[in-house]
Amino acid sequence: MENELKLGAGAVASLGIATAALVVLPYLQVRDLHPAPGLKPYTEQQLRGRQVYIANGCVYCHSQQPRDRNFGPDFERGWGRASVPADYYYDSPHLLGTMRTGPDLLNIGARQPSEDWHLGHLYQPRAYVQGSNMPAYRFLFVQKDSAEDGDRVVNLPAGYGVPGKVTVATREAIDLVRYLQSLDRSYPALPAQARP
Hints:
With 196 residues, this protein is mainly α. The chain has helices at 2-30, 44-55, 108-111, 115-123, 171-182, and strands spanning 141-144, 152-153, 166-169.
């Protein structure tokens, strides 16, 4: 009976320590979090694009959390400074990602601000990044005989378009690009401040 009590007490103590370390302490660190200076809330269009990002599984191949210089070469790769909790203030759910099949996207809006580049890259990634293993998202585009008023025509490199047709971006493609362009965390990260 004494061994069962010791075993039970040890299990409860272990569970308590794990809960404190993995749940309570992180909550205490971020409960009074404010958005980073320079971080803006997403617009309605960017939020729609975020949903396209989620629906198409972009988070499975791309992370949104550049690491500190001591933990990896992310800064040398041009992915930007290490992220801080305040960078994710408006994100729900958080799209940190765990895989890096493709580059980290937290600062893609700063690295690649061109709408033309993003649209073309979504239509045919290998036309813009040689050897890319990203799938083409051609279903986000339509082929037309001629552009109409209000159409966003995609200017593709020679040999990548459909002959005799114009490639037009759908609303989902444009929304996704707006979301990607909003991923610009190039403002300086402020150190954590102690609560008063």
